[in-house]
Amino acid sequence: MTDQRLSLSLAAAIAASLSLAPVAGHAQETFKIGLVNFLSGPAADAFGVPSMNGGVLMVEALNAGQVPAPYDGQTGIGGLPIEFVQIDESGGAQVQIQRYRDLVEREEVDAVLGYDGSGDCLAIAPVADELQTVTIFSGCGTTRLFEEASYDYVFRAGAHTTMDNVALAHYIKRTMPETKTVAGLNQNYSWGQDSWRDFTAALTLLMPEVEIGPELFPEPGAGQYGSQISVLMRAKPDVVHSSLWGGDLEAFLLQAGPRQLFARSHVVFNMAEHVLPRMGEKAPVGLITGGRGAVGELRPRTELADWFYEAYAEAYGIPAVQGPFRFVQTILALKTAAEIAMAENGGTKPTDEEIAAALAGLVFETPSGTVEMALADGHQAIQGAAIGIAAWNDELGRLELTEVEHFAARCVNPPAGVTSLEWIEGGMVGAECE
Amino acid sequence: MDIALTILVDGLIYGAWLFLVAIGLTLVFGIMKILNVAHGALYAVGAYAGASLVGGYLFATPPAALQLPLLIVAALGVALLLGPLLEGVLLRLFYGRDEVVILLATFALSLIIEDLIKQVWGVYSYYVSEPYALFGVIEAGPLFYVGYDAFLIVVAALVGLGASAFLRLTRQGKIVVAMIHDSEICRAMGVNVSRAYLWTFTVGVFLAALAGALIAPTLAVTPTMGVNAIILSFAVVVIGGLGSVEGAALGALIVGCTRAATVHLWPEGELFIVYAVMAAVLAVRPRGLFGMPEGRKI
Amino acid sequence: MTLRPSPAPAGRALGLAAAVASAILALLLLAGWAAPSWAIYTATIALAKGLVVLGLVMLLRMGLISFGHGMFYCFGAYVSGLLASGAGLTDALALTLAATLGTAALGLLLGLLLAGYRGVFFAMFNLALSMILYGALLKSVSLGGSDGVSVPAPSYFGLVPPDGMRSLAAYGFVATIACAAGFLLWLVSRSQLGLVLLGVKGNEIRLDYLGISARRLILVAYVLSAALAGMGGSLVAIVSGHVIPEMAYWTTSGEFVFITVLSGPGSISGAFAGAGVFEAVRLATGQYLPNAWQLLLGGFLLLVILFLPDGISSLARRRTGTADASAPPAGRVQGEG
């Protein structure tokens, strides 16, 4: 079974990284990074393990100099081989602070990359500044991170929650202009609440005549959506918006499919892309989704994107989804910034201050397209979004996202200096949509 | 379909699932006085076993007629393998210790099982949705229900009636009831309590695994699927009164219908409605609805 | 019968215990000064969580287990967190006192209801209440929802430690509070109140015959344990700089029960030692075996409860062969007949 092979190879990778640990500080200088994501708990299969797989793949390819342009220059980071330590993100914010401090103070990593949980990011950020260690977040979506505080050493190399929900609103206006009623099914915790808030704000701005309701807020981890499906079937909304993910999303798709929800309403998701390759024919045709950026099958068809997609499929036997795409953005941001800093300081290993200075406002290429650290004084990334519709592909033997609509980064992200909600409620002034 | 009727049907479906998970928990507690925290992890193992046999992971997907029997076989396999192993080798070491120590032992066990699941099956979800289509789709007004959910209600009713009949009508059942009340006296009367414990625990594992295997077709099988199930079934058995089959049934119905009503009428309350019901029941009936007062010993 | 501290520990024993507590504190501070920086944070958290465990140890001595003390831990943390972030109060001592008193009040309110419950029902009622708090916090967008609340860096008696000293200052503060609380609890466990507490587990009816209300005893112990949990939560909030609803989730409460059994009911220092061992084992397994740390943690717990039935605290006694100064003199009271 591929799963066993995966966990074995992961175990081997960990064993390898462990056996490397004592070698640290030995003749050759290295660049040591901590990679953090969920290896257990509900987010492990959806995001954590694929992210780690993608991260390990990218680090090894960078060390071997196999990554295509623009990363075909120096191996590793500025010629220094990259060494990594993997950490499990599960256990809650307090545990993560502990593990973060251990990474920085005992393992003495040069930078920490990762984190998908918003609570974890909010908790780690002040600690990163206290310990003055470059820390680049990958998946956490909360807009609070840089809208309520500012940090010197903390960056987020992927877009926040707002983007995909604004893109969905644009998508509905563009492709389903006849929409009259929209219902929501979002989990009752920050991710779900924020997604629904941004989506409804953007949609009521773009399509003021649309009626909102019912608004469902299932408990995270519920796994049983029978009652919610009944509510949606009775209300017969034109569109249902959902930010479900992982096992809960899969359960919802498996339960809602036979109950004809997809035959009655358009169901749009902001991040359901990640379950499609594994669910194969079990996911419903007609599902509309983004993937928090142009990732996986939604990716821009560049050499870098195609190389990553194919290398991942070859290494792990399954297509890369949003987790790995997002995670490698942190690695590439670090590599680009560190090499800029090295070019300026004469080629020595850069300090955290130097890397942080180079990261602020950085523009860099990733498998998900060009990413620009445009917001929060150059600490928060914006990138393009993409939304597609699931259709059966006989050749692949599974559902595929087709009719992909791309949205420019500056169309679906707020401009600098204004919070997301203010921007949306103020009429999305400054949005550059073509 | 009328909203009250919809709530009732939704509640019944949810309650059937809860009851299937909770009945093993309540029996093991009633007889062995063990609150088995690992019940949720065993439920997950049952789901994985069912998915492996029927979902096309080990063999090709079996023909429709064999799918349900194979799910039950999977649960039996889990019970016969893990029941004697866990009770005979592990739990036995802790008998005679405080209830809380045994509870902690099962908590440790659930941590171990959850990680072992990841080692054996990996972290990615398994799907076994084929049986979900076995009983077709039932149209009811604006709604469509899945026949398999009706089948689960029937199974839950049969399991409950079966357990109840066993306890009331058979000799072994009466011994078990006696053990629920006082296992020390039973021992003195010549009941082989140790063998009864082995059987009880194995049946408990079977019921957990059966719930897992039968629910697996309706959702994605993941390593953490037991976490939510175990805490909800705690609520169900505490509401009903620990150790009582009838109590678990009533508890499951109450929780199922309240949750369904909350989703329909006050969606944001779903987060804590189950615990609010549990607290309210305990405040009025300190030992649950069917709980029996404990004799005071001087 | 009214309960008051018995005169026995007054005088020499009291002075000795105070000296022991001060000596332990001095040792802790010295160790903190000498320890590598990475160990400081984990030690601080362990001391703070040790306070929660201390409260649970008190309940355990009465034969009661709460599967919901995460509620008080979380409540204390949020009181501190919200006072600091919302009202701008940053003095660590003031925050901790406010959180402790606030949690004690909540403990009294709930304790009036819960004191009549025993066994599994006591454990589960606590669990239900803690899950209600968890749900309410998750849903409260204005309180940060599931992402929680950031707590600004604390000040100590008007002084704000510089960046490099923050961990050490926090450690010193938490160690001082922990030693003071430990000493006070030692006094309680030596008092008549502490001794009759054991009777609740032993045999309530005999207590009745002595004219002591088990219900009232449980209420007192419950409020104390709630206050200790709130204190621990407040310290964790101040030290970590972030509070989340998960602090009230049932697995957090389970973790505290886990540490309590790991520590054993024997001693006060054992509660802190147990918390330290737990945090260290979890950190080490999480860091080196990110895929199997739960398995190792579970295995470790099984071994401890199997081979050290009275917890880690019994290890010290076994080795030295002397009685732990803080152990209740009556030892464990077994319920007979």
From TrEMBL, chain A:
Keyword Ligase: no
Alphabetic keyword roster: Amino-acid transport, Signal, Transport
InterPro entries associated with the record: BCAA_transport, Leu-bd, Peripla_BP_I
Matches recorded under Pfam families: Peripla_BP_6
Residue span, Leucine-binding protein domain: 31-387
Endpoints of the signal sequence: 1-27
UniProt similarity note: Belongs to the leucine-binding protein family.
PANTHER family in alphabetical order: ABC TRANSPORTER SUBSTRATE-BINDING PROTEIN (PTHR30483:SF37), LEUCINE-SPECIFIC-BINDING PROTEIN (PTHR30483)
Protein name as catalogued: ABC transporter substrate-binding protein
Organism: Paralimibaculum aggregatum
From TrEMBL, chain B:
Keywords: Amino-acid transport, Cell membrane, Membrane, Transmembrane, Transmembrane helix, Transport
Predominant location: membrane
Subcellular location(s) per record: Cell membrane
One Pfam family named in its UniProt record: BPD_transp_2
Bilayer topology annotation: Multi-pass membrane protein
Membrane spanning stretches: 12-35, 42-60, 66-89, 101-124, 144-167, 197-219, 272-290
Domain of life: Bacteria
Family annotation (InterPro entries): ABC_transp_permease, BCAA_transport_permease
Family matches, as PANTHER family: ABC TRANSPORTER ATP-BINDING PROTEIN (PTHR11795:SF442), BRANCHED-CHAIN AMINO ACID TRANSPORT SYSTEM PERMEASE PROTEIN LIVH (PTHR11795)
Protein name stated in the entry: Branched-chain amino acid ABC transporter permease
High-level lineage: Bacteria, Pseudomonadati, Pseudomonadota, Alphaproteobacteria, Rhodobacterales
UniProtKB/TrEMBL annotation, chain C:
Ranges that cross the membrane: 12-32, 38-60, 67-87, 93-113, 120-137, 168-188, 217-244, 256-281, 288-308
Location(s) in or outside the cell: Cell membrane
InterPro entries registered for this protein in UniProt: ABC_transp_permease, LivM-like
Major subcellular site: membrane
A Pfam family that the UniProt record links to this protein: BPD_transp_2
Membrane topology summary: Multi-pass membrane protein
Keywords, ordered alphabetically: Cell membrane, Membrane, Transmembrane, Transmembrane helix
Protein name in the entry: Branched-chain amino acid ABC transporter permease
